[in-house]
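does this look right to u?? adenosine monophosphate version
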Amino acid sequence: MGIEGTAHTLGIGIVNSDNRVLADERRIYSPKAGIHPREAAQFIADNFKNALDSALEKSNLEFNHINLISFSQGPGLGPCLRTVATGARALSLHYKIPIIGVNHCIAHIEIGKITGKFHNPLVLYVSGGNTQILRLRDKRYRIFGETLDIGIGNMLDKFGRTAGLKHPAGPRIEELAKNGKNYIELPYVVKGTDLSFSGVLTSAEQKLKAGAGLEDLCFSLQETAFSMLTEATERALAHLKATELLLTGGVGNNERLQEMLGIMAKEHNAKFGFPKNYCSDNGVMIAILGLLMYNSGIRHCIEDTIIKQKFRSDDVRILW
Ligand code: AMP
Ligand code: MG
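got this back:
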């Protein structure tokens, strides 16, 4: 069983030892104006029992069938992480089931590798708080490039908030962008394989307030930010001579981003893919990573399950 709860989504996933999905319950906190950490944690606590019961019911399982409890140990919002860790510890102690804390970012990567049958892909991981370009080397996912300020999802959500769109704004911006006709110039900031999104956000907000059309701005924001991602990713792909490219994380749901990366990968004869239905936060990816860790001999006692708000992807030794 995997329990996800780093920010907006409480996910309870159950997989069997072959990674077959037996349950995938998700409860998504949708705030009026940006994620409030304490309210998000309260949402997780309020929905925990209901999501857990549904996951067991849908999988036709009881707790005595569960062999491992995995939970998202970080990175994420402190109050959310603490709520999920407390729930996972309580279940582990009460039912005497081993517990394992996992890195949320690595979980996004591993589910993509397993569902897409990748070997050693270059990874573009794009979510609310994270934007990273990584590849496995000498037992760690090395970060070849990343955002120097905010994650791309945060940038989209913040722009959406200014424009009065519902949170999370990414999917709505994608829809509005389809009707955009005119490209409005925005700052384009790529530094080697690193990126910066705060300037493009400020500029887009200023242009919106000055009267630019929302559809044109959504279109321009996507074209600019996704071109930045594609350029930085292409640079890393060419440098590493990678033959596979994996897109993962919530922003990976975006079809325009998928299209741009797909074209770029094709030009380099690289295989391209993303975990369909599992780009967004979910409990299944936490269960899958917990299993990988457990099967490679890793064990956590309760003292090891302390949350890690700033848990870096390259802090994890990849033993599988
Ligand atoms: P995650 O935390 O990995 O679930 O990612 C959440 C982020 O993904 C939020 O910032 C959303 O706005 C963003 N997102 C979800 N769907 C889309 C989409 N279709 N296009 C762009 N961003 C998206
Ligand atoms: Mg995520």
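The chain has two domains: 2-107+280-315, 118-273. idk if thats expected tbh
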